[in-house]
Amino acid sequence: MAFIVLVGALDVMALQGPYFAMVGLSETSFSFLNLDRQRYFSLALNGYFFLALMLITDHSKSLDLRRASRILEPLALLHMLGPLYLNARAQRGNPLIGFDVSLYLGTVGLLFWIGPWKSLWRVLVGALGGVALGSYLLIDLELVRKSVFALSIGLIGLVGSTVTYLYLLRSEKLLIKKRTAKKFLNKS
């Protein structure tokens, strides 16, 4: 019950009275913080809070808190990536659109770092979805040309898969050598 109240209260606060307006940062003082940005950034701040709460409760001694951290994973992803994506789309034509897209892509990068670091496969899958939406966002907002983007992504994929294949091939050979050496030592 407390969990539902926490999420609901924070979301209502973010939508009805954006956090930036609550602390005195509004469109009148900063033209950058229009009402859309205030609402979307407030929801994204909720997502960052849920992510921090998830990371704290993930290794708790309490089973209930560890279960709650699993519920916080998708909430954090949806609250971070969704509003930042929608904000970038809402700012189409704004001269500072690059900042909005960079903020979205930086959040995706953060999730790519946290996923493997904490062994959270759901976060990693969410980051992969964020890459797909970010790619669409870059093309939709005409920040990159389609042909250059497609060639770059293809080249990055080819290089990444080749490096991964060579790494796995090398580690397999090292593993075989260790097994052979161990069998030899056991027979002696």
Describe the structure.
This protein is mainly alpha-helical and 188 residues long. It is 81% helix and 0% strand. The termini are far apart. 22% of the residues are buried.
Structural class: mainly alpha
Strand content: under 5%
Helix count equals 7
Span of the ends, CA to CA: 64 Å
Secondary structure layout plus pairing:
Elements: H1 2-16, H2 19-22, H3 35-57, H4 63-90, H5 97-117, H6 121-140, H7 146-187
Characteristics of this structure?
7 helices, flat, 81% helix, mainly alpha, 0% strand, 188 residues
Write a short abstract of this structure.
The chain is built from seven helices and no strands. It has 188 residues and is mainly alpha-helical.
